[in-house]
Every structure is written in C-alpha cells, then in structure tokens.
Amino acid sequence: MAVASAVDVARLAGRLPGGMTLERGEQIHEFVRAQRPSSCLELGTANGVGALYICSALEANGHGTLTSVDQRRSAQSRRPQARELVQEAGLSGRVTLVHEETSYTWFLHDTLRSQLKTDGEVEPKYDFVYIDGAHSWDVDALAFALVDRLLVPGGWILFDDLTWVFDERWPDVPDYQRSFAQVREVWELLVLTHPGYDEFHSDGHWAWARKSAVVQPPSRLLVKRDLVGAGVSLWRLARNRLRANRSMRASKAARSD
Which of 4, 63, 215, 255 is a plausible cystine mate for 59, CB 3.0–4.6 Å? Predict the structure, then answer.
C-alpha cells in the first residue's frame, strides 16, 4: 500500500542525515493536500525525502504527479537512492525521477522548448515548484527565470535554505561568494521584486511565492523583421526621396524659365 501521510514518510525516511524534518514535511504535505496541484516539479532530489512528502500528499489527494530533477552524479552517490525510497513507499506511480549530467537548468531548457507553441508562446506546465538544489546564484537565479515561464498563473514556488552558505567544503568558491546566502539573494532581488507575483511568505528558512492568477496585459510591442526585408524597405525609402528631390528641382527650374 502506498504511503499517504507525512507521519508514515517520517517513519520510512525521517532519520536520513540532511533530510527534511517531520515538521517541514508536514508543512509541505499539508500545502499539497490543500492546493491539490496536478503537476509538481522538484529541483534537487537528494535522497528523495522531500519527494516522498509531496508524493504522499498527491497519493492522499488521489490526483497529481511530481517530476524530481537532480544531477546524475549527485543522485547516484546517495545512500539510499531516491528511487529505492520511492519504491519502498509504493509511490513510483506518482513521481518521475530525472537525472541531468550537469544542472537542472538544462531540464528546464528542454521543457521550455517542448512547451513552446507555434504562435511563439510558452504554455505553462507546473502548479507547484520546489527549489532545493544548487543553492547558488548562478544556477538558481536562472532556474527561477525559467521556472517562472513554466508556472501556471496562481501557481506557487517554494525556496528552501534561505540561510544556506558555501563553506570550507567548497574551497574553489571565492570568499565573497561565501560571505552571504545566495538563495536569499535570488529571493530578495528577483522574486520579491517581480511584478508577476502577488503573495509572499517567509519564515527565514523557507520562502513561498504565488504567481498572480491575473494575466498581465501585454506592455510591450515586439516587431520581428528579417534583414532582407529591412534592406528592401530602406532602398525604397531612399529611392522615393531621390525621386522627390528630382521632382522639386525640376519644378523650380520650370518656374525660373
């Protein structure tokens, strides 16, 4: 029987080091139960504990799926691996685990490409996105920009680890970049200032943002023109001006005669 409660997830996987606590697990479980999303996305799988809390709520709802994405090397180095926990919880039918060679931003790239329609619009796909992966500005700032295009109006994004910083385990990271929490920079500089979001919640560690359900009217005009067409238009303009100048000179000459 599939696991369908936060307490049962905690019994199965709650003691894993670095895994989501029962308190946090209950919070995300209750959110999914209440919001009833159809399509969820998790960026950063690790051992899969967060995925279990999300999928157990989807199972309790009897509705919805999760796609969870992580870097292949990181995912395969975990013990136990997420796939093993998902199978043990009986939730394989609720989640698709995706392993990327480099970064989950490439998964987002491919998804954006697949959602791009013939009219040039990107069709949103996800109701709820949980970002708990790289924790770096260069990855997660881009991830937010890409996720924003894929999030349906009224959908939610959850950022984990607002206070997390790179430490001595990452000696190649410059001191300046280790001096502040980079996920918090994404939250404060990009999310809170984004005009397309209308509801925000943060407890200092987790941060939630809701994309406005009101579709903003277009505020810019995009004109697409090929270079050949532009060249032809300039040539015609120059030709017409030349003809006009010749006509004016001929008219002046006629009057002077």
Answer: 4
